[in-house]
């Protein structure tokens, strides 16, 4: 589950990480009041107006603006709220901005001793270790830094069973070229950041930039945070932070129906039971000359209601030219799955305008194939993976 910048900063702050303070606003008037409140709290006379969407690179798309007066706060907020913000991490349509973060300006006028760093914490699944990635080149796309100056990117591996050691935090501060008070504050920053990552069950904490102010304080000026969905039962308070407006509406609908669905850019819809079989099915589609339009796992049950819901979700994608149903009948019998498919097809009537290829293997697979073959509907049965691939090829011809 991805979070907005202001939400990620709230979590960081709760673990003792110094952050750029601010107030979220959904209207221009709220933005104006937030700026006044920030002045009262922090004494800032300049404010940063930041679009809140689940994507990076907001500044490049005009989603981050500096306001040097209260009137400018209203002006910048009116420009950003409601805009479709296009960044390198959004689609070409962009994302609509529903709210802005009115933040204190931490780059004091005339200040020349500030430094910007990059830092992130994530899991290296191959090594089974947590990794802190950091660089002296903050405020830039880390991908660009990795491509042009890879020697400026450092990594620190952390054994989850042992945790972050003091010498590792000191090593990070040293590699960033810090000394004195800034060195000590960075050690504290790294320790608190890693603690936030572990105890919030996050999959990613990315801070770009981490700022060293002229008075040698270290603070998170940005925060990109993702929480492991599987851990939310331990964090009911985090579940309230979910913003479904930032998610694909089809994926949200599928989740509400209990379906595991991920939209992809392809032309063949998939309906499968089991994640492993779903991955194999997508391979079949690629080998047959098509591209998977989605990942959809219907789970252990495939009755008519569930199948119909899955069909309707897949067919919302106008690029789908065929649907491949690949079910292994272990827990559920193949003939029941076949009946569910046929009932769903009849219920949907003329809304199904693409061929459906059904491969059923397992208990009563022969009976299921006969049911489909005798139905008279535009549903084609397959027994082997090769048969299914051949039917997909025909459907796309």
TrEMBL record:
Q: Tell me which cofactor or cofactors this protein depends on.
A: Mg(2+)
* A Pfam family it matches: Ligase_CoA
- Molecular function (GO) terms listed? ATP binding; magnesium ion binding; succinate-CoA ligase (ADP-forming) activity; succinate-CoA ligase (GDP-forming) activity
Pathway, according to UniProt? Carbohydrate metabolism; tricarboxylic acid cycle; succinate from succinyl-CoA (ligase route): step 1/1
Q: Which residues bind substrate?
A: 273, 330-332
User: Which PROSITE patterns does UniProt cross-reference here?
Assistant: ATP_GRASP, SUCCINYL_COA_LIG_3
Q: Which GO terms describe its biological process?
A: succinyl-CoA metabolic process; tricarboxylic acid cycle
Residues that coordinate or bind ATP: 50, 57-59, 106, 116
Q: Which UniProt keywords apply?
A: ATP-binding, Ligase, Magnesium, Metal-binding, Nucleotide-binding, Tricarboxylic acid cycle
Q: InterPro entries annotated for this entry?
A: ATP-grasp, ATP-grasp_succ-CoA_synth-type, ATP_grasp_subdomain_1, Succ-CoA_synthase_bsu_CS, SUCC_ACL_C, Succ_CoA_ligase-like_bsu, Succinyl-CoA_synth-like
E.C. no: 6.2.1.5
The catalysed reaction is: GTP + succinate + CoA = succinyl-CoA + GDP + phosphate; succinate + ATP + CoA = succinyl-CoA + ADP + phosphate
Describe cofactor binding as the record notes it.
Answer: Binds 1 Mg(2+) ion per subunit.
Limits of the ATP-grasp domain: 9-236
**Binding site residues for Mg(2+):** 208, 222
| Family annotation (PANTHER family) | SUCCINATE--COA LIGASE [GDP-FORMING] SUBUNIT BETA, MITOCHONDRIAL, SUCCINYL-COA SYNTHETASE BETA CHAIN
**What NCBIfam families would the database entry show?**
PRK00696.1 (NF001913), sucCoAbeta (TIGR01016)
Instruction: Relate the assembly described in the record.
Output: Heterotetramer of two alpha and two beta subunits.
Q: Which family does the record assign?
A: Belongs to the succinate/malate CoA ligase beta subunit family.
Summarizing the function annotation, the protein's role is: Succinyl-CoA synthetase functions in the citric acid cycle (TCA), coupling the hydrolysis of succinyl-CoA to the synthesis of either ATP or GTP and thus represents the only step of substrate-level phosphorylation in the TCA. The beta subunit provides nucleotide specificity of the enzyme and binds the substrate succinate, while the binding sites for coenzyme A and phosphate are found in the alpha subunit.
Q: What name does UniProt use for this protein? A: Succinate--CoA ligase [ADP-forming] subunit beta
Organism (species): Apibacter muscae
């Amino acid at each position: 589950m991805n979070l907005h910048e202001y939400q990620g900063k709230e979590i960081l702050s709760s673990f003792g990480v110094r952050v750029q303070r601010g107030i979220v606003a959904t209207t221009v008037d709220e933005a104006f009041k937030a700026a006044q409140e920030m002045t009262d709290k922090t004494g800032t006379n300049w404010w940063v107006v930041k679009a809140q969407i689940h994507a990076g690179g907001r500044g490049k798309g005009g989603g981050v603006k500096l306001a040097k007066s209260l009137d400018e706060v209203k002006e910048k907020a009116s420009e950003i709220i409601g805009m479709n913000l296009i960044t390198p991490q959004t689609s070409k349509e962009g994302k609509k901005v529903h709210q802005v973060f009115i933040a204190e300006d931490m780059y004091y006028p005339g200040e020349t001793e500030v430094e910007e760093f990059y830092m992130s914490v994530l899991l290296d699944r191959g090594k089974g270790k947590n990794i802190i990635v950091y660089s002296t080149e903050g405020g830039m796309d880390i991908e660009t830094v990795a491509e042009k100056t890879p020697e400026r990117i450092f990594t620190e591996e952390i054994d989850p069973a042992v945790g972050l050691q003091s010498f590792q935090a000191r090593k990070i501060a040293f590699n960033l070229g810090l000394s004195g008070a800034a060195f000590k504050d960075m050690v504290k920053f790294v320790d608190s950041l890693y603690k936030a990552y572990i105890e919030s069950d996050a999959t990613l904490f990315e801070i770009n930039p981490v700022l060293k102010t002229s008075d040698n304080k270290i603070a998170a000026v940005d925060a990109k945070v993702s929480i492991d969905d599987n851990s939310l039962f331990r964090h009911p308070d985090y579940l309230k932070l979910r913003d479904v407006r930032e998610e694909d509406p089809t994926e949200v609908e599928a989740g509400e129906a209990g379906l595991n669905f991920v939209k992809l850019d392809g032309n063949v819809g998939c309906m499968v039971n089991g994640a492993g079989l779903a991955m194999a099915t997508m391979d079949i589609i690629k080998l047959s000359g098509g591209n998977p339009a989605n990942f959809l796992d219907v789970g252990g049950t495939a009755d008519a209601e569930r199948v119909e819901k899955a069909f309707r979700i897949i067919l919302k994608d106008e690029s789908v030219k065929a649907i491949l149903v690949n079910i292994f009948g272990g827990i559920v019998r193949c003939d029941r799955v076949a009946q569910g498919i046929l009932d769903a097809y009849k219920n949907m009537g003329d809304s199904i305008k693409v061929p459906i290829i059904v491969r059923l293997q397992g208990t009563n697979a022969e009976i299921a194939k006969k049911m489909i073959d005798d139905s008279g509907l535009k549903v084609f049965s397959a027994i082997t993976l090769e048969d299914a691939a051949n039917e997909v090829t025909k459907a796309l011809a």
